[in-house]
Known about the structure:
Helices cover 70% and strands 0% of the residues. The protein is mostly helical and 329 residues long.
Amino acid sequence: MEGFIPELSNLAGELWREFVYILPYLAFGVFLEAIIRTFKWHVKIRKVLTHFGIYSILLATLLGVASPLCACATLPLVISLLLGGLPLAPAMALLVASPLMSPASYTSLAKMLGIEWANLIVVCAVILGLFAGFLTHFLRRYGFNEEQLFRKELPKGDFHDPNYPVEQLRCECGQQLSHRVDRCTHNKFYVFLARFWEGLFKIGKFVLLGLVIEVVASQFIPNLWITNLLSNEGVLQTVGIMFATIPLHLPQLTAAAMVFGFYLPDPGETIALAKGPGIAMLIGGPVTALPVMAIFISMFKRRVLFLYLGLCIIGTLALAAIFSIFPPF
Length: 329
C-alpha cells in the first residue's frame, strides 16, 4: 500500500501534464465547433443535400469533414435524412466521413501528432467518404437502395419529439444546456458559451480517456514494444491494428491521445508513427464505433451493415497501403 499511493500520484501527475499540454489546441477546436453549432451552419448545408443528385456525395463528404458531429450523433441524423428522401449514397458518404474529422479533431491532431498527420487524416476522410458514396451509388442496381434498407418500417415523426416511439433514434438534444439557454434567453452569446462548455466536456472526455488508457498501458506493456509496433510499416501490423480496433469504442481523439502518450514527443519533435499502422488506428477505429454498430444491427438489414463495414475496412486498408509507399514526413 505504501508503494501504491506514490505510484498512483505519479500516474495522476503524468496524466495531468499530458492533458494540459494539448488543452489549448483542444479548446480552440471546440471554440470553432461552438461557432458552427451556434449559427447552425452545418444544419443549413444539410438541408440542401437532397437537391444535388450525385453531386450530393461530394457535398455530404465535405459536410462530414467539417461537421462537429461524431459517429453516434451522425447515424440518427442520417436515418432522418434517409426518411426525408436523401439517397443512400450521400448518406453513406456522410456517415463514413463525419467521425474522421472535425475542427476540434484537426487542432488536437495537429498538436498531438503534428500538422502533417492532421492534414493526412483530412485527405483520408475525404477520399474514404467519396469512395463510400460513389461505390454505394454503383451498388444501387444490386439492391442497395432506399426501399431495402431497414429491418422494419420506421414510424414517421420528428426524432426531436420526446415521444418518438423508437427510443434508439429519439434525440435528447432538447435537454442540453445550450438548448435550455436558447429557450430562456435567445441570446447567441450565451448559447455559444453553453455550446462551448458542452463541446469541451464531450470532446475532452475522449481525449482524457485515451490518455488514461495510455498511462495505464505504459505501466503494464513495454513502451518500446508499442512504439515499435506503431513505428514500423508492415502488412501484419496494419491489418492487426485495423481488426483490433473494430470491437473497440475508439473515437479518433481517444486514439490520437493514446498514440501521443506512447511517444510523448518534445515540443517540435516529429513522432515516428508509420503511415500504415497510424491510418489503421486513426481511421479504422473511429468508423467502427460500437454504439454505431449496435444501431446498425437493430435498425438496418444485414446487407447494409456488411456494406458499411466492408467500405470502412477495405477503404482503410487501401488508404494505409497507398500512403505507406510515400516517404515519411
